[in-house]
Design brief:
Blueprint (H helix, E strand, L loop, with lengths): L2 H21 L20 H13 L18 H13 L8 H14 L2 H12 L5 E4 L15 E5 L2 E8 L10 E7 L10 E7 L5 E5 L10 E11 L3 E2 L5 H12 L3 H23 L5 H23 L1 H5 L7 H23 L14 H9 L9 H12 L9
Helix pairs in contact: 1-3, 3-7, 4-5, 4-6, 7-8, 7-10, 8-10, 10-11, 10-12
Length: 392
């Protein structure tokens, strides 16, 4: 990076920091630290108002090209934005699925009509999105989906079931991977459809988690309809589009996520020092290993960002997913061990404290967004070129 680019990034970072300091005040001051994994139910309406406030000031979709409503921020500037947002303890974003997953997918693969219809409403946070990938019998094996769609005149008719659909109960639209070619199998014959949620034929059922919250859902499509033009890429090309979306999901925003991880690790370390757990050499060793892992995680993320920045995320992004998911799950285990026997008790209304919630929700980290087993297969087959795993 040139000195001019360094100065540009430094100035951009300062601009982000100053704006957050000036705006996370008044009605928004109480939103600091609210929301996030396992806590998506917290003050949703207020966080939506905050994100629309950000949009009015031009702070959503900062990495998108200016022609699509973004700021055209460089990779370094995007990293600066996500890190400063996390350092400010700003609330968890409500439309990250639209901004970070679907938006970049439409920019890379969508038609001009699709971009014109959907991108402005993501930038302004007018429409919420969810992701229709996993199914009860498919899980992370996306190629095994059974949800089907067929053309009926000028519309696709969608029938099937999706599961573990994050924020489906808040979403206006869902990008759905469905089988559109009868008799096709595995990766062939899949299409990537954009389906409105508020219609007859769509039912959302919340799934109560170990944390007692319900940000995941089952979604049932029973003859739901969407326009024939709401297919991204060509019909039958859904696998390629879906894999690109997963690559975008593992992109720049993970650097901000790691700032949150660092804050959690520091809090666990402080707790260990205050309650005496740090005197246990095994606990000290785990704290040190967690710190080392976090530093390695950042280096790994930076090394794999080039593909995401170019608009063509590669399978190497799966390395980062395994890394952070496994690390964060281990941090949850470390946290309850530092708490000791107190971690087995809940409040009078069975309320969970932060450490219990971290432990319980982080169990899902190695499953959602592609399980560790699937990520290892992707790395082995598509990165290392090893023989494919035998299929039944």
């Amino acid at each position: 990076m040139s000195r001019a680019e360094e100065r540009g990034t430094s100035e951009f970072r300062a601009e982000v920091r100053d704006w957050l300091r000036s705006n996370l005040t008044g009605e928004f001051a109480g939103l600091r630290g609210r929301g996030g994994p396992g806590r998506e139910h917290e003050v949703h309406a207020e966080r939506l108002a905050w994100e629309r406030h950000m949009a009015a000031a031009g702070w959503t979709c900062v990495g998108w090209p200016e022609e699509y409503g973004g700021r055209g921020a460089t990779l370094e500037q995007q990293i600066a934005f996500h890190e400063e947002y996390a350092l400010a303890d700003a609330p968890a974003r409500v439309n990250h699925i639209g901004e970070q997953l679907l938006g970049p997918t439409l920019i890379a693969f969508g038609t001009p009509e699709q971009r014109e219809r959907f991108l402005p409403r993501i930038v302004s946070v007018e429409e919420m999105w969810c992701q229709g990938y996993s199914e009860p019998d498919a899980g992370s094996d996306l190629a095994n989906v059974r949800t089907r769609a067929e053309l009926d005149g000028g519309e696709w008719v969608v029938t099937g079931q999706k599961v573990w659909t994050s924020l489906a109960h808040e979403a206006d639209w869902c990008f759905v991977v469905a089988r559109t070619e009868p008799g096709s199998a595995r990766h062939a014959g899949l299409s990537y459809l954009l389906v409105p949620m508020h219609q007859e034929g769509v039912e959302v059922r919340p799934i109560v988690q170990l944390t007692g919250t319900s940000e995941f859902n089952e979604v049932f499509f029973d003859g739901a309809r969407t326009a024939a033009g709401n297919v991204v890429g060509a019909p039958g090309d859904g696998w390629r589009i879906a894999m690109a979306t997963l690559g975008f999901e593992r992109g720049v925003s993970t650097l901000g996520q790691q700032v949150g991880f660092r804050r959690e690790l520091q809090a666990v370390t402080d707790l260990a020092r205050s309650n005496g757990a740090a005197e246990d050499p095994l606990i000290r060793d785990r704290l040190v290993r967690a710190w080392i892992g976090l530093e390695a995680m950042r280096a790994t993320a930076l090394r794999t960002m080039d593909g995401v920045a170019s608009g063509a995320p590669g399978p190497e992004a799966s390395i980062g997913k395994i890394f952070w998911a496994t690390w964060h799950r281990s941090l949850g285990e470390l946290a309850v061990d530092v708490c000791g026997t107190a971690s087995t008790l809940t409040g009078p209304d069975h309320d969970l404290d932060d450490w219990q919630r971290l432990y319980l929700f982080s169990r899902s980290d190695t499953i959602y967004a592609g399980s560790n087993e699937i990520q290892r297969n992707i790395i082995a087959e598509r990165v290392l070129g090893l023989p494919r795993e035998p299929r039944p």
